[in-house]
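Page 47, continued from p. 46.
Same chain as before, 191 aa.
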Amino acid sequence: MTAKPMMHKVSMDLNLAMLKQCLPEQLQMQSVTAVMLALGSNYQADKHLPRVRKDLAALGEILLSTPFQNPDFTATIELPKPDYTNQCACLRLAKPVTLQQLQALFKQMEGECGRERLVVAKTLVKKVTMDIDILLIETFINKNSLSDNSSSNQKSEWLIMADRYPFKAHERAGIEELISVNSLLLVTTNQ
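Result:
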């Protein structure tokens, strides 16, 4: 008899100050079950954000924060820049993948939106069609390293991506909204 995943809602109680911070380089082969993302665009956001939200939803259950319109913090009076539309998303993956695979997939999604990553910018004002940043990841860790990896011996752990912390004001607001307003789906397997 094959195991069927059962989905049930649990409230997400994350205390950001208490979470462990890890550099992405240390977690490349780590199996990821959920992510908190920062989505952003300063060029045709009304076209690119819905596309990426749809692509993300195809990977699992997605919850979205309210979109925010923010000025580019690098803009000056002499060099004005377009505002960004930012939104946070929590994505519970249908099946675990490595952080490395997720990063490659998100870069592909950015590229499909026309994102250009130039070492030397052609213009002073950069058009960012889509930016997908991983803020936090959820992984399963064994409670007992001698165990058989069954779901009863695993617990989930959220980790902050140290290269993204401290979070920008709109990222923190989006994460806090997702934590307080929504419930996340926790997937457990019956053996």
